Amino acid sequence: xxxxxxxxxxxxxxxxxxxxxxxxxxxxxxxxxxxxxxxxxxxxxxxxxxxxxxxxxxxxxxxxxxxxxxxxxxxxxxxxxxxxxxxxxxxxxxxxxxxxxxxxxxxxxxxxxxxxxxxxxxxxxxxxxxxxxxxxxxxxxxxxxxxxxxxxxxxxxxxxxxxxxxxxxxxxxxxxxxxxxxxxxxxxxxxxxxxxxxxxxxxxxxxxxxxxxxxxxxxxxxxxxxxxxxxxxxxxxxxxxxxxxxxxxxxxxxxxxxxxxxxxxxxxxxxxxxxxxxxxxxxxxxxxxxxxxxxxxxxxxxxxxxxxxxxxxxxxxxxxxxxxxxxxxxxxxxxxxxxxxxx
Length: 343
Hints:
It is a single chain. This protein has 343 residues and is of the alpha/beta class. It contains 13 helices and 12 strands. It has helices at 13-21, 35-50, 81-89, 107-112, 144-155, 163-176, 187-198, 203-210, 217-228, 245-248, 261-266, 298-303, 321-342; strands at residues 24-29, 54-59, 76-78, 93-97, 118-123, 134-137, 231-233, 238-244, 273-279, 285-291, 307-309, 312-317. The strands form 2 sheets. A 6-stranded parallel β-sheet has the order 3-2-1-4-5-6. A 6-stranded mixed β-sheet has the order 7-8-9-10-12-11, with helices on both faces. Strand 1, helix 2 and strand 2 (54-59) form a beta-alpha-beta unit.
């Protein structure tokens, strides 16, 4: 299946040669990995393993509970310098998936600097990738998952028809398109999804894992807190909520329950920019921003050293939650005013 008619030209020949000519690989994705990063690394790893190659997946942090269905037992490990640095250094190739910015590899990013192995990025985010030897990034792609689909199609047209590969790549694409609802959902993605369904993927089964299983009792306590703290500005076009995790731990919440809050805020009628400002114990304020699709928010994230897509971005800010909230909300106001002035 080719997508050249949609203008998605990608030259995979160099990467194809690297994958076929080398034997040992280490894969990783960003801190607090999502289904796009995890599904992408699993899809390519499973294909390479079917060729008899060795692949270790070493991620910076543990999977969210709702992603536990994706890997088999011991298929993904949490990176430790003490346990894994020598393994990485002795491998032929390192590939980072969906990281957005090199620093999001955390401890692994620091260790890799001194290692003499080929380093590759496959991503659909803009961001600093200067530390890599080869960068296969396409910011026009809906997801890193669709890039892996396209890569595998270029290597072996039958690869994406293998159920375990198809399932992981479908989850990747589903995640970053909001179950094929966001404005990055394009013909390439939908055609790829159709092919993966023909390989046996069950869309509702994956939807339950990725979306419905999020709503634990602890998650509902987080949503209650979010609603109680919800504030608006710019005639309801800007909305935000601030949550300190320590306030809701006694109610049964877990760190997993804090994800995707800005998506919920954005879903409110009239809201164009939704922002969640949260803090985990001992960490900076974590800012997540979502836009309805007109006003970019990655420029806001960039101003605080973060990044992301035009309409889905994030960053971390030092200081108190109150200070972080005031700073990012003011940037949100400015973004809306700038949009209005240029409209």
